[in-house]
Design the sequence.
C-alpha cells in the first residue's frame, strides 16, 4: 500500500504539473495577445496598453482566551487579491488569489490562485475556478485546471478539465481524520445554442476518484470506496408571447460507487448503464439516477405567477456538484403582485412535497410549505412588513396493517410583524424599526398519543440617528427572546449601543457594546461584548485598519457552563488600484 501510495503521489504530481504548465501557457498567451489584437483592431493606439483595477489586502489576526480552550490559532494571517488587468481596454483579465498560513498544517490547499481572462465572446479559465453549466451536472464545484467558455453569436460552448478534489485524510474544518477524500480528476463540457432567455444547452461531466491516492486503515477498507461518475444533462429556456417563460432541466447520472470492485459481476440490466460502460468503469455497484425540474412563469406589468415541478431520485449525485437534496418530488406555486402604484406589495408561495420515491422506506413524509409576505408604505415615512410561513411534515406508514396510518405530524408556523418609521432631512436621518416574531412548532405522535409544542417569542426595537453634517451615527437596540416547551424554558434579553464617526473623510472610528442576560432555569448567565473599529484612509489607494473585539461570558452556575473571556485583534491593510 505504501508503494502504491508513493506511486500515486508521483502520478498526482505529474498531473498537477501538467495543469500548472497549462495555466502558465494561458498566462503567457494573455500576455502576448494584446499585441496581436493591436495589429487587427483600429484605434488601439489611442488606448492605454494596460490598466489595473481591483484590490489587494493583508490581514494579521491575533486571538486569546481564558477559562476555555482556544477555539482558533493564537496567530494567523491571510493575503487576498482580486486584481483585474485590462489590455487596450479590450482584453480583460480578472485574477484572484488567497494565501494563508493554514496550508502549512493541512494537505487540503487553502491557497488558491486563478484567473478568467476574456475577450469579446471568449473567456479562458486557469487555476482554481468554479464554473456552472447546469444545476444537475457541473454546479459550482471548485477545480484546479483550465478551460474556456465561448459564446460567438448563437453558439454556447464550454469545456473544463482539472482536479476536483485533492487526496487528503484530513477534514480542514473539523481538523479530524474523517471523512477521507480521494483525489478526483475529470472534465465537463457544454454545447448549446441561443441567447438571453431563449437557449438550449447539453452538458456532460465525467470524473473519477484515484483509488490508491489515500492509504486507508484496515477498519475502513470497503467502507470508503473510490467512485466514478458520468452525468449527461439538458437545460433549456424559452420566452413566448412576451409574458411567459418556460424552462426545463433534466439530467441522468451513472454512478459507480466502487470502481475497484470485481469486474466479472455484471451491472444492472439497464440500457443506459450498458451504453455508459463504453466510457467508464461499470460493475455491480453502478446505479443510474435521474433529476429534472420544469417551470412556467407569467410576468405582466407588476403581477407574476410561477409554477414549478421538481423531482430528484434517491441518492442522486454528481461529482461536479457538492450536494443535492434528493429523494423528493414537489410542486410549487408562487404568485406576486404590486398594488396602489407600488405602495402595497404582496407575494407568497405554496408547495407540496413528498419523499420515498422508490417505495423503499418504511414511512413516507408529506410536506406542505407555504408563505405569505405583505409590505406596505402607508406614508412616505411609515411602513409595515408582515410575513407568515407554514411548514408541515406528515410521516405515513406504507404497511396497511397499522390501524392508524398517520404516525407523526409536525407543523412549524412563523409570524413576523415589522413596522418602520424613517425621517430623512438634509441634516438628520432617523430610523425606528420594531419587530415581533412568533414561532410555533407542534409535533404529534399518534402511535403513543403524545403532543408536544415549542413556542418561541422574539422582539426587538432598533433606533438609529445620523447627523449628516458631522458624519456621526448613534444607534441603540433592545431585544428579547423566550423559548418555551413542556420540558424547558429559556431565553434572554439585552441592550446594544453603538457609535460611528467619520473624521475628514479619512479616519473612521466605531464602537459597539452589548450585554445579554440569560433567562434559563439552569444558568442565568450574562454576556458582555465590545468591539472597536478604526480605519484610516491614507490616500485613495492605501487604507489601514484595526479591529478589536472582547467577549466576557459570566456563568451563574459553573457546573453547568464555565465562565470565560475571549478577545480577537485584526490588523489589516488594503490597496486599491
Sequence:
Amino acid at each position: 500500500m505504501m508503494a502504491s501510495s508513493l506511486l500515486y503521489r508521483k502520478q498526482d504530481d505529474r498531473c498537477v504539473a501538467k495543469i500548472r504548465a497549462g495555466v502558465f501557457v494561458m498566462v503567457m498567451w494573455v500576455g502576448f495577445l494584446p499585441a496581436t489584437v493591436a495589429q487587427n483592431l483600429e484605434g488601439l493606439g489611442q488606448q492605454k496598453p494596460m490598466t489595473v483595477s481591483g484590490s489587494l489586502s493583508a490581514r494579521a489576526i491575533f486571538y486569546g482566551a481564558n477559562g476555555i480552550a482556544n477555539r482558533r490559532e493564537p496567530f494567523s494571517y491571510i493575503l487576498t487579491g482580486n486584481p483585474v488587468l485590462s489590455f487596450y481596454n479590450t482584453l480583460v483579465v480578472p485574477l484572484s488569489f488567497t494565501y494563508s498560513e493554514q496550508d502549512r498544517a493541512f494537505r487540503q490547499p487553502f491557497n488558491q490562485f486563478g484567473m478568467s481572462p476574456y475577450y469579446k465572446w471568449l473567456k479562458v479559465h486557469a487555476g482554481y475556478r468554479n464554473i456552472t453549466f447546469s444545476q444537475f451536472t457541473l454546479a459550482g464545484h471548485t477545480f484546479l485546471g483550465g478551460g474556456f467558455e465561448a459564446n460567438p453569436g448563437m453558439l454556447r460552448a464550454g469545456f473544463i478539465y482539472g482536479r476536483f478534489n485533492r487526496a487528503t485524510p484530513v477534514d480542514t474544518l473539523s481538523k479530524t481524520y474523517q471523512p477521507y477524500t480521494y483525489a478526483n480528476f475529470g472534465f465537463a463540457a457544454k454545447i448549446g445554442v441561443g441567447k438571453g432567455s431563449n437557449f438550449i444547452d447539453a452538458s456532460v461531466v465525467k470524473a473519477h476518484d484515484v483509488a490508491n491516492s489515500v492509504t486507508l486503515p484496515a477498519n475502513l477498507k470497503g467502507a470508503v470506496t473510490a467512485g466514478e461518475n458520468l452525468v449527461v444533462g439538458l437545460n433549456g429556456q424559452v420566452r413566448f408571447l412576451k409574458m411567459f417563460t418556460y424552462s426545463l432541466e433534466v439530467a441522468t447520472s451513472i454512478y459507480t460507487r466502487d470502481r475497484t470492485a470485481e469486474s466479472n459481476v455484471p451491472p444492472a440490466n439497464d440500457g443506459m448503464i450498458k451504453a455508459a460502460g463504453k466510457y467508464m468503469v461499470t460493475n455491480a455497484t453502478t446505479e443510474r439516477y435521474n433529476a429534472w425540474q420544469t417551470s412556467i412563469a407569467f410576468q405582466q406589468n407588476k403581477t407574476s405567477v410561477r409554477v414549478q415541478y421538481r423531482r430528484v431520485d434517491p441518492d442522486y449525485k454528481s461529482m461536479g456538484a457538492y450536494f443535492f437534496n434528493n429523494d423528493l418530488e414537489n410542486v410549487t406555486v408562487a404568485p406576486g403582485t404590486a398594488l396602489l402604484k407600488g405602495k402595497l406589495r404582496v407575494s407568497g408561495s405554496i408547495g407540496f412535497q413528498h419523499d420515498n420515491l422508490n417505495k423503499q422506506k418504511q414511512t413516507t413524509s408529506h410536506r406542505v410549505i407555504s408563505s405569505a409576505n405583505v409590505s406596505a408604505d402607508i406614508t412616505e415615512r411609515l411602513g409595515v412588513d408582515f410575513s407568515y410561513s407554514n411548514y408541515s411534515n406528515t410521516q405515513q406508514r406504507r404497511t396497511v396493517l397499522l390501524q392508524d396510518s398517520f404516525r407523526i405530524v409536525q407543523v412549524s408556523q412563523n409570524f413576523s410583524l415589522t413596522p418602520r418609521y424613517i425621517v430623512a432631512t438634509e441634516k438628520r436621518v432617523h430610523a425606528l424599526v420594531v419587530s415581533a416574531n412568533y414561532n410555533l412548532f407542534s409535533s404529534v405522535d399518534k402511535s403513543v398519543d403524545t403532543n408536544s409544542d415549542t413556542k418561541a417569542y422574539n422582539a426587538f426595537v432598533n433606533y438609529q440617528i445620523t447627523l449628516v453634517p458631522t458624519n456621526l451615527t448613534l444607534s441603540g437596540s433592545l431585544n428579547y427572546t423566550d423559548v418555551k416547551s413542556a420540558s424547558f424554558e429559556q431565553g434572554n434579553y439585552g441592550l446594544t449601543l453603538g457609535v460611528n464617526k467619520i473624521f475628514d473623510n479619512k479616519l473612521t472610528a466605531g464602537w459597539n457594546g452589548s450585554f445579554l442576560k440569560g433567562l434559563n432555569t439552569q444558568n442565568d448567565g450574562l454576556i458582555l461584548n465590545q468591539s472597536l473599529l478604526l480605519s484610516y484612509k491614507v490616500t485613495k489607494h492605501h487604507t489601514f485598519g484595526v479591529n478589536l473585539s472582547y467577549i466576557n461570558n459570566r456563568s451563574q452556575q459553573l457546573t453547568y457552563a464555565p465562565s470565560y473571556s475571549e478577545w480577537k485583534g485584526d490588523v489589516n491593510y488594503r490597496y486599491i488600484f
